[in-house]
Amino acid sequence: MKILRVALLAAASLMMAQAANAGEAEYAEMVATHARANGVPEALVHRVIMRESRYQPGLVGRGGTIGLMQIKLATARGVGYTGDAAGLRDPNTNLTYAVKYLAGAYRAANGDHARAVRYFAGGYY
């Protein structure tokens, strides 16, 4: 029974990794566009997406975080978003506002990726 459980966990982990890789490829061009527009390294944007949603654009997390980068509606509004919460499930819309917010965290972290991720997740202003 224990061997079966380990095998199932390994298979599930592999499937999740494959799905994340497919998601990264699917959104690579969009991520590149938003990263360039906001002066943020693409790798940092991908790191946040992987950490927050594993490339699941429709994901709604605890505390009302939404979409690829799991941004809160109030945070998105703080950087200019005027739509409703459902609009943040659109990958392009989510990236527009979440990468803008990440850019501020990146600057506040003086370019330190790990600190920028912490600032993005916990707030920095």
Automatic annotation (TrEMBL):
Organism superkingdom: Bacteria
Family membership: Belongs to the virb1 family.
Species per Swiss-Prot/TrEMBL record: Bradyrhizobium cajani
SUPFAM superfamilies tied to this protein: Lysozyme-like
Alphabetical list of Gene3D superfamilies matching this protein: 1.10.530.10
Domain Transglycosylase SLT positions: 32-118
InterPro entries tied to this protein: Lysozyme-like_dom_sf (IPR023346), Transglycosylase_SLT_dom_1 (IPR008258)
Name by which UniProt lists this protein: Transglycosylase SLT domain-containing protein
